[in-house]
Design brief:
alpha+beta; Mth169, Chain: A; 2 domains; 6-stranded antiparallel β-sheet; extended
Length: about 270
């Protein structure tokens, strides 16, 4: 059985909602939003009802500062509501921590826990503004909008592919075809990167599988290769004098350390 609970900070402690409201009003420029409530939703499977009740005031909420619901409060016009969850396979720190705490509390097996964040927005918000807000608050790289329906199970079954697609003709593609390939598959690599991979598989005398290309692409980014911080700063125009003074002091330290001939990097 899947147990569900909603947890919301009491008005006096709703700091996160206030911060999101300020962000939407200032950074996003949507002035029509007058209030933001944030409700944390937890679905739990793999524990008894008694243990679920035991976890309510100890794992899922703090009674002095949280309100707990077993049904989502109905939205009052003209409120707008949407929920956000992590993408499948994306690590969810909050859900994982809750599962570990329940396991320690109940001294049993670790249950399955799924988490979603629900935003309740007040104000006369247009459809265009609502779409803009969702695009702003949902990081598509790691999360997605989710529904409100009850879950029958949290178990996920994946179809194991019997065959992995081989990218036939990859090593024979022209530069123009490689450029189209980057766009088609939404790769983080650029054309030169993919050309490098092509040359490697030419030396192997075979076409790669889609899994190999996806794996290489995942770890090819500047962030994963730690090349971002190797970006060379050719010049720096610093306006605030106190920051400029610090930068000049840094330059003097470079001379003291004998590093003045090395490039300045991020």
């Amino acid at each position: 059985m899947v147990y569900r609970v909603y947890v919301e900070k009491k008005k006096l402690f709703a700091v996160e909602g206030g911060a999101v409201l300020d962000d939407l009003n200032t950074a996003l420029g949507v002035k029509s939003v007058t209030n933001v409530r944030i409700i944390n939703r937890y679905d739990v499977e793999g524990i008894s009802e008694d243990n679920f009740k035991k976890a309510l005031p100890t794992v899922f909420s703090e009674p002095p500062v949280d309100d707990v619901y077993f049904a989502l409060p109905e939205a009052k016009a003209p409120e707008r509501v949407f929920a956000v969850e992590f993408l499948p396979g994306q690590f969810d720190q909050r859900a994982d921590s809750a599962a570990q705490c329940i396991q320690m509390l109940c001294k049993g097996d670790r249950p399955d826990v799924k988490y979603a964040k629900i935003y309740v927005l007040s104000g006369k918000i247009s459809d265009e503004e609502f779409a803009k807000i969702k695009h702003y608050l949902i990081n598509a790289v790691e999360a997605r909008e989710c529904g409100f329906e009850e879950k029958k199970t949290l178990k996920v079954s994946y179809t194991v592919p019997t065959e992995v697609e081989t990218l036939d003709g990859f090593i024979g593609k022209s530069d123009a075809e490689l450029a189209d390939f980057v766009v088609k598959y939404g790769l983080a690599m650029d054309n030169d990167d993919l050309k490098f991979c092509q040359n490697y598989f030419k030396s192997e005398r075979r076409d790669p599988t889609i899994t190999e290309i996806r794996m290489i692409d995942t770890y090819w980014s500047d962030h994963c290769r730690h090349t971002t911080f190797g970006t060379i700063i050719d010049s720096a125009d610093i306006k605030p004098s106190y920051i400029a003074d610090t930068y000049n002091k840094y330059q003097l330290h470079r001379i003291d350390l004998g590093r003045q001939n090395k490039p300045i990097c991020l």
